[in-house]
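PT: before anyone asks, these are the final sequences, not the draft ones from last week. 377 residues across everything. Please model them as a single complex and drop the result in this thread when it's through.
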Amino acid sequence: MERSHLYLPTLSYATMGHVYAPYNGSSSPATTLPLSSSSKPEQIEELVSQQLHHLKMHYADEEQRYVDQMLLENPIVVERRAPPPLKSEIVVDQGSNSGSGSGSDRSDVKEAKDAQRQRAESCRKSRYNNKIKKAKLRFRHKFVSGQLKKSAVMLDTMRDVIAQAERQLLDRGFPASALERMRTTFGLEMEH
Amino acid sequence: MENYSHKKFTGALKRKRSTDGESDDDVVFVMEQQQPVHRTPEQQPQAKRRFFRPWLDEPAEKEVQPEPPRKIVTTTPPPKDTAYHANMVRNHHKRRHRSPQEQLRRDRNTLASLRHRRSQQQQQQIIEQEYLSSRIQHEAQLQQQIRLSLYYVRFLQQSMASMEPLTPTQPKPVLPPRQTTTQHP
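LR: through. Structure below.
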Protein backbone atom coordinates (compact mmCIF):
# COMPACT_ATOMS: atom_id res chain seq x y z
CA MET A 1 0.00 0.00 0.00
CA GLU A 2 1.31 3.41 -0.82
CA ARG A 3 1.98 5.41 2.24
CA SER A 4 5.57 6.26 1.66
CA HIS A 5 4.88 9.84 0.68
CA LEU A 6 3.16 10.59 3.92
CA TYR A 7 5.27 11.48 6.90
CA LEU A 8 3.83 9.99 10.04
CA PRO A 9 5.47 11.31 13.21
CA THR A 10 5.74 9.08 16.24
CA LEU A 11 2.54 9.56 18.14
CA SER A 12 2.70 9.28 21.90
CA TYR A 13 -0.66 7.61 22.07
CA ALA A 14 0.78 4.41 20.60
CA THR A 15 -0.47 2.40 23.54
CA MET A 16 -3.98 3.71 22.93
CA GLY A 17 -3.99 2.61 19.32
CA HIS A 18 -6.59 -0.05 19.92
CA VAL A 19 -8.91 2.60 21.30
CA TYR A 20 -8.37 5.30 18.73
CA ALA A 21 -8.45 2.97 15.73
CA PRO A 22 -10.17 -0.26 16.65
CA TYR A 23 -10.58 -1.29 13.08
CA ASN A 24 -9.48 -4.87 12.88
CA GLY A 25 -10.13 -5.32 9.21
CA SER A 26 -7.42 -4.57 6.65
CA SER A 27 -7.49 -1.25 4.95
CA SER A 28 -6.32 -2.32 1.53
CA PRO A 29 -8.39 -1.02 -1.32
CA ALA A 30 -9.41 -4.46 -2.49
CA THR A 31 -11.10 -5.52 0.70
CA THR A 32 -12.60 -2.30 2.02
CA LEU A 33 -16.29 -1.76 1.77
CA PRO A 34 -17.54 1.00 -0.46
CA LEU A 35 -17.09 4.31 1.32
CA SER A 36 -20.72 5.31 1.28
CA SER A 37 -22.08 2.34 3.21
CA SER A 38 -19.55 2.44 6.06
CA SER A 39 -19.38 6.19 6.47
CA LYS A 40 -22.97 7.16 7.03
CA PRO A 41 -23.25 10.00 9.51
CA GLU A 42 -25.35 7.95 11.93
CA GLN A 43 -22.85 5.10 12.00
CA ILE A 44 -20.02 7.52 12.49
CA GLU A 45 -21.79 9.28 15.36
CA GLU A 46 -22.51 5.95 16.97
CA LEU A 47 -18.90 4.91 16.64
CA VAL A 48 -17.67 8.25 17.98
CA SER A 49 -19.91 8.08 21.04
CA GLN A 50 -18.83 4.50 21.77
CA GLN A 51 -15.17 5.39 21.50
CA LEU A 52 -15.64 8.52 23.56
CA HIS A 53 -17.30 6.55 26.33
CA HIS A 54 -14.48 4.03 26.23
CA LEU A 55 -11.85 6.74 26.44
CA LYS A 56 -13.65 8.55 29.25
CA MET A 57 -13.70 5.37 31.31
CA HIS A 58 -10.04 4.84 30.59
CA TYR A 59 -9.09 8.35 31.70
CA ALA A 60 -11.30 8.14 34.78
CA ASP A 61 -9.41 4.99 35.82
CA GLU A 62 -6.10 6.68 35.11
CA GLU A 63 -7.13 9.66 37.19
CA GLN A 64 -8.14 7.50 40.14
CA ARG A 65 -4.90 5.57 39.90
CA TYR A 66 -2.93 8.80 39.82
CA VAL A 67 -4.75 10.22 42.83
CA ASP A 68 -4.20 7.02 44.83
CA GLN A 69 -0.54 7.00 43.91
CA MET A 70 -0.09 10.63 44.93
CA LEU A 71 -1.85 10.02 48.23
CA LEU A 72 0.52 7.15 48.92
CA GLU A 73 3.50 9.31 48.12
CA ASN A 74 2.18 12.26 50.13
CA PRO A 75 0.42 10.79 53.16
CA ILE A 76 -1.91 13.06 55.09
CA VAL A 77 -1.07 13.38 58.76
CA VAL A 78 -3.15 15.02 61.45
CA GLU A 79 -1.28 15.57 64.65
CA ARG A 80 -2.70 14.78 68.05
CA ARG A 81 -2.40 17.14 70.96
CA ALA A 82 -2.83 14.43 73.56
CA PRO A 83 -1.84 10.77 73.25
CA PRO A 84 -4.63 8.56 71.91
CA PRO A 85 -6.90 7.05 74.59
CA LEU A 86 -5.92 3.46 75.36
CA LYS A 87 -8.60 0.83 75.03
CA SER A 88 -7.86 -0.29 78.57
CA GLU A 89 -8.70 3.15 79.94
CA ILE A 90 -12.07 3.14 78.24
CA VAL A 91 -12.81 -0.35 79.50
CA VAL A 92 -11.82 0.59 83.05
CA ASP A 93 -14.03 3.66 82.90
CA GLN A 94 -16.96 1.67 81.71
CA GLY A 95 -16.31 -1.05 84.29
CA SER A 96 -16.05 1.35 87.20
CA ASN A 97 -19.13 3.17 86.04
CA SER A 98 -21.28 0.07 86.00
CA GLY A 99 -19.78 -1.36 89.21
CA SER A 100 -19.90 1.65 91.51
CA GLY A 101 -23.44 2.93 91.22
CA SER A 102 -22.32 5.63 93.57
CA GLY A 103 -24.32 8.60 92.54
CA SER A 104 -25.35 10.76 89.69
CA ASP A 105 -22.23 12.94 89.98
CA ARG A 106 -19.77 10.27 88.99
CA SER A 107 -21.93 8.99 86.15
CA ASP A 108 -22.38 12.55 84.92
CA VAL A 109 -18.67 13.05 84.90
CA LYS A 110 -18.19 9.77 83.12
CA GLU A 111 -20.77 10.67 80.53
CA ALA A 112 -19.20 14.05 80.02
CA LYS A 113 -15.82 12.42 79.61
CA ASP A 114 -17.16 9.92 77.11
CA ALA A 115 -18.94 12.63 75.19
CA GLN A 116 -15.80 14.73 75.16
CA ARG A 117 -13.69 11.84 73.97
CA GLN A 118 -16.19 10.96 71.29
CA ARG A 119 -16.41 14.58 70.20
CA ALA A 120 -12.65 14.87 69.98
CA GLU A 121 -12.42 11.74 67.88
CA SER A 122 -15.21 12.86 65.55
CA CYS A 123 -13.60 16.24 65.16
CA ARG A 124 -10.26 14.69 64.42
CA LYS A 125 -11.76 12.30 61.90
CA SER A 126 -13.61 15.14 60.23
CA ARG A 127 -10.45 17.23 59.94
CA TYR A 128 -8.59 14.28 58.50
CA ASN A 129 -11.31 13.54 55.93
CA ASN A 130 -11.47 17.17 54.89
CA LYS A 131 -7.72 17.24 54.39
CA ILE A 132 -7.93 14.15 52.23
CA LYS A 133 -10.75 15.64 50.17
CA LYS A 134 -8.76 18.79 49.52
CA ALA A 135 -5.66 16.84 48.58
CA LYS A 136 -7.64 14.63 46.21
CA LEU A 137 -9.09 17.65 44.46
CA ARG A 138 -5.63 19.13 44.07
CA PHE A 139 -4.27 15.91 42.54
CA ARG A 140 -7.24 15.49 40.23
CA HIS A 141 -6.86 19.04 39.02
CA LYS A 142 -3.14 18.46 38.39
CA PHE A 143 -3.85 15.26 36.46
CA VAL A 144 -6.52 16.76 34.23
CA SER A 145 -4.43 19.86 33.49
CA GLY A 146 -1.57 17.63 32.38
CA GLN A 147 -3.85 15.52 30.22
CA LEU A 148 -5.35 18.63 28.65
CA LYS A 149 -1.91 19.87 27.57
CA LYS A 150 -0.95 16.48 26.17
CA SER A 151 -4.15 16.11 24.20
CA ALA A 152 -3.77 19.62 22.79
CA VAL A 153 -0.35 18.66 21.44
CA MET A 154 -1.78 15.42 20.11
CA LEU A 155 -4.57 17.27 18.33
CA ASP A 156 -2.10 19.61 16.65
CA THR A 157 -0.03 16.67 15.46
CA MET A 158 -3.08 14.90 14.08
CA ARG A 159 -4.24 18.03 12.30
CA ASP A 160 -0.82 18.47 10.71
CA VAL A 161 -0.81 14.89 9.47
CA ILE A 162 -4.30 15.20 8.07
CA ALA A 163 -3.53 18.53 6.42
CA GLN A 164 -0.53 16.92 4.78
CA ALA A 165 -2.65 14.03 3.49
CA GLU A 166 -5.32 16.38 2.20
CA ARG A 167 -2.75 18.49 0.39
CA GLN A 168 -1.45 15.40 -1.33
CA LEU A 169 -4.93 14.36 -2.35
CA LEU A 170 -5.67 17.79 -3.76
CA ASP A 171 -2.39 17.74 -5.65
CA ARG A 172 -3.46 14.51 -7.24
CA GLY A 173 -6.65 16.04 -8.48
CA PHE A 174 -9.05 15.06 -5.74
CA PRO A 175 -11.96 17.48 -5.70
CA ALA A 176 -11.94 19.88 -2.77
CA SER A 177 -15.72 19.75 -2.51
CA ALA A 178 -15.55 16.02 -1.86
CA LEU A 179 -13.06 16.64 0.91
CA GLU A 180 -15.34 19.21 2.52
CA ARG A 181 -18.27 16.87 2.22
CA MET A 182 -16.38 14.08 3.96
CA ARG A 183 -15.22 16.40 6.69
CA THR A 184 -18.82 17.34 7.37
CA THR A 185 -19.78 13.67 7.42
CA PHE A 186 -17.20 12.97 10.05
CA GLY A 187 -18.22 16.01 12.07
CA LEU A 188 -15.07 18.02 11.52
CA GLU A 189 -14.95 21.74 10.98
CA MET A 190 -13.90 23.04 7.61
CA GLU A 191 -10.23 23.33 6.85
CA HIS A 192 -8.79 26.84 7.06
CA MET B 1 -14.05 40.25 51.76
CA GLU B 2 -14.84 43.44 53.70
CA ASN B 3 -18.55 42.65 53.35
CA TYR B 4 -18.23 39.36 55.13
CA SER B 5 -20.63 38.96 58.02
CA HIS B 6 -20.82 36.49 60.82
CA LYS B 7 -23.62 35.95 63.28
CA LYS B 8 -21.27 36.73 66.13
CA PHE B 9 -21.14 40.31 65.02
CA THR B 10 -24.75 40.82 64.09
CA GLY B 11 -27.98 40.81 65.98
CA ALA B 12 -28.30 40.56 69.75
CA LEU B 13 -24.67 39.89 70.40
CA LYS B 14 -23.63 43.02 68.60
CA ARG B 15 -26.12 45.16 70.48
CA LYS B 16 -24.91 43.75 73.78
CA ARG B 17 -21.31 44.44 72.97
CA SER B 18 -21.87 47.94 71.78
CA THR B 19 -23.51 48.84 75.09
CA ASP B 20 -20.48 47.72 77.07
CA GLY B 21 -18.95 51.10 76.42
CA GLU B 22 -15.80 52.14 74.72
CA SER B 23 -12.66 52.49 76.67
CA ASP B 24 -10.28 55.32 76.09
CA ASP B 25 -7.30 53.06 76.31
CA ASP B 26 -4.31 53.02 74.07
CA VAL B 27 -5.89 50.63 71.60
CA VAL B 28 -8.51 53.12 70.53
CA PHE B 29 -5.97 55.89 70.51
CA VAL B 30 -3.61 53.92 68.35
CA MET B 31 -6.34 52.88 65.92
CA GLU B 32 -7.33 56.45 65.28
CA GLN B 33 -3.84 57.72 64.80
CA GLN B 34 -2.16 58.15 61.46
CA GLN B 35 0.60 55.60 61.59
CA PRO B 36 3.76 56.01 59.55
CA VAL B 37 4.26 53.15 57.17
CA HIS B 38 8.02 52.87 57.47
CA ARG B 39 10.05 53.20 60.61
CA THR B 40 13.80 52.95 60.94
CA PRO B 41 15.05 50.13 63.12
CA GLU B 42 16.64 52.64 65.46
CA GLN B 43 13.30 54.15 66.34
CA GLN B 44 11.59 52.79 69.35
CA PRO B 45 8.19 51.30 68.75
CA GLN B 46 5.52 53.64 69.99
CA ALA B 47 5.16 53.39 73.70
CA LYS B 48 1.43 52.94 73.56
CA ARG B 49 1.46 50.25 70.90
CA ARG B 50 1.60 47.02 72.80
CA PHE B 51 0.34 44.58 70.22
CA PHE B 52 1.47 43.61 66.77
CA ARG B 53 -1.03 45.17 64.38
CA PRO B 54 0.09 44.84 60.78
CA TRP B 55 -3.36 45.78 59.57
CA LEU B 56 -2.74 49.33 60.71
CA ASP B 57 -0.31 49.73 57.87
CA GLU B 58 -2.88 48.73 55.32
CA PRO B 59 -5.42 51.28 54.17
CA ALA B 60 -8.03 48.56 53.65
CA GLU B 61 -8.02 47.74 57.34
CA LYS B 62 -8.65 51.30 58.54
CA GLU B 63 -12.36 50.61 58.52
CA VAL B 64 -12.02 48.10 61.38
CA GLN B 65 -13.27 50.07 64.28
CA PRO B 66 -12.52 49.35 67.95
CA GLU B 67 -16.02 48.06 68.45
CA PRO B 68 -17.33 45.27 66.33
CA PRO B 69 -18.22 46.38 62.80
CA ARG B 70 -21.61 48.00 62.57
CA LYS B 71 -22.49 48.13 58.92
CA ILE B 72 -21.96 44.74 57.46
CA VAL B 73 -23.71 43.89 54.24
CA THR B 74 -24.89 40.33 54.42
CA THR B 75 -23.67 38.14 51.63
CA THR B 76 -24.65 34.62 50.87
CA PRO B 77 -22.35 32.33 52.82
CA PRO B 78 -20.67 29.50 50.97
CA PRO B 79 -22.70 26.32 50.90
CA LYS B 80 -21.84 24.02 53.78
CA ASP B 81 -23.18 21.07 55.61
CA THR B 82 -26.12 22.27 57.68
CA ALA B 83 -26.82 19.03 59.51
CA TYR B 84 -27.05 19.44 63.25
CA HIS B 85 -24.86 17.08 65.24
CA ALA B 86 -25.97 17.15 68.85
CA ASN B 87 -22.82 15.53 70.13
CA MET B 88 -20.68 18.29 68.70
CA VAL B 89 -22.41 21.05 70.67
CA ARG B 90 -20.12 22.45 73.30
CA ASN B 91 -21.43 23.44 76.69
CA HIS B 92 -19.93 26.81 77.42
CA HIS B 93 -19.68 27.57 81.07
CA LYS B 94 -20.39 31.02 82.32
CA ARG B 95 -19.58 33.66 79.81
CA ARG B 96 -16.02 34.76 80.28
CA HIS B 97 -15.57 38.30 81.37
CA ARG B 98 -13.01 39.93 79.23
CA SER B 99 -11.64 43.37 79.38
CA PRO B 100 -12.46 45.57 76.40
CA GLN B 101 -8.94 45.20 75.08
CA GLU B 102 -9.14 41.44 75.32
CA GLN B 103 -12.56 41.41 73.72
CA LEU B 104 -11.31 43.59 70.93
CA ARG B 105 -8.40 41.29 70.41
CA ARG B 106 -10.69 38.27 70.38
CA ASP B 107 -13.02 39.93 67.90
CA ARG B 108 -10.19 40.79 65.57
CA ASN B 109 -8.82 37.30 65.78
CA THR B 110 -12.24 35.85 65.09
CA LEU B 111 -12.78 38.09 62.10
CA ALA B 112 -9.34 37.32 60.73
CA SER B 113 -9.82 33.60 61.07
CA LEU B 114 -13.26 33.78 59.49
CA ARG B 115 -11.88 35.75 56.58
CA HIS B 116 -9.07 33.29 56.17
CA ARG B 117 -11.44 30.37 56.23
CA ARG B 118 -13.68 32.09 53.71
CA SER B 119 -10.78 32.76 51.37
CA GLN B 120 -9.65 29.14 51.67
CA GLN B 121 -13.14 27.99 50.74
CA GLN B 122 -13.20 30.31 47.77
CA GLN B 123 -9.84 29.02 46.62
CA GLN B 124 -11.13 25.48 46.83
CA GLN B 125 -14.18 26.45 44.81
CA ILE B 126 -11.97 28.04 42.16
CA ILE B 127 -9.86 24.90 41.91
CA GLU B 128 -12.97 22.81 41.58
CA GLN B 129 -14.36 25.05 38.82
CA GLU B 130 -11.08 24.89 36.95
CA TYR B 131 -11.02 21.12 37.30
CA LEU B 132 -14.52 20.77 35.92
CA SER B 133 -13.91 23.09 32.97
CA SER B 134 -10.59 21.36 32.19
CA ARG B 135 -12.38 18.04 32.17
CA ILE B 136 -15.03 19.32 29.77
CA GLN B 137 -12.34 20.74 27.50
CA HIS B 138 -10.42 17.48 27.62
CA GLU B 139 -13.49 15.48 26.65
CA ALA B 140 -14.14 17.82 23.73
CA GLN B 141 -10.56 17.32 22.58
CA LEU B 142 -10.89 13.56 22.88
CA GLN B 143 -13.98 13.65 20.71
CA GLN B 144 -12.15 15.72 18.14
CA GLN B 145 -9.27 13.25 18.15
CA ILE B 146 -11.64 10.36 17.59
CA ARG B 147 -13.26 12.11 14.64
CA LEU B 148 -9.92 13.04 13.13
CA SER B 149 -8.57 9.52 13.41
CA LEU B 150 -11.77 8.07 11.93
CA TYR B 151 -11.60 10.55 9.07
CA TYR B 152 -7.98 9.73 8.44
CA VAL B 153 -8.26 5.96 8.58
CA ARG B 154 -11.59 5.51 6.89
CA PHE B 155 -11.33 8.12 4.24
CA LEU B 156 -7.98 9.74 3.63
CA GLN B 157 -5.86 6.63 3.74
CA GLN B 158 -8.20 4.74 1.48
CA SER B 159 -8.48 7.63 -0.94
CA MET B 160 -4.74 8.00 -1.11
CA ALA B 161 -4.30 4.31 -1.63
CA SER B 162 -6.76 4.28 -4.47
CA MET B 163 -5.17 7.22 -6.29
CA GLU B 164 -2.03 7.29 -8.39
CA PRO B 165 1.12 8.34 -6.56
CA LEU B 166 2.95 11.59 -7.25
CA THR B 167 6.48 11.72 -8.63
CA PRO B 168 8.81 13.77 -6.44
CA THR B 169 9.94 15.99 -9.32
CA GLN B 170 6.43 16.94 -10.31
CA PRO B 171 4.57 18.17 -7.25
CA LYS B 172 1.42 18.98 -9.20
CA PRO B 173 1.06 16.71 -12.15
CA VAL B 174 -2.15 15.76 -13.91
CA LEU B 175 -1.35 12.19 -14.77
CA PRO B 176 -3.65 10.10 -16.92
CA PRO B 177 -4.59 6.99 -14.97
CA ARG B 178 -3.01 4.51 -17.42
CA GLN B 179 0.47 5.94 -17.45
CA THR B 180 3.01 4.17 -15.34
CA THR B 181 5.28 6.21 -13.17
CA THR B 182 8.42 5.44 -11.34
CA GLN B 183 8.66 6.19 -7.70
CA HIS B 184 11.68 7.73 -6.08
CA PRO B 185 11.57 7.30 -2.33
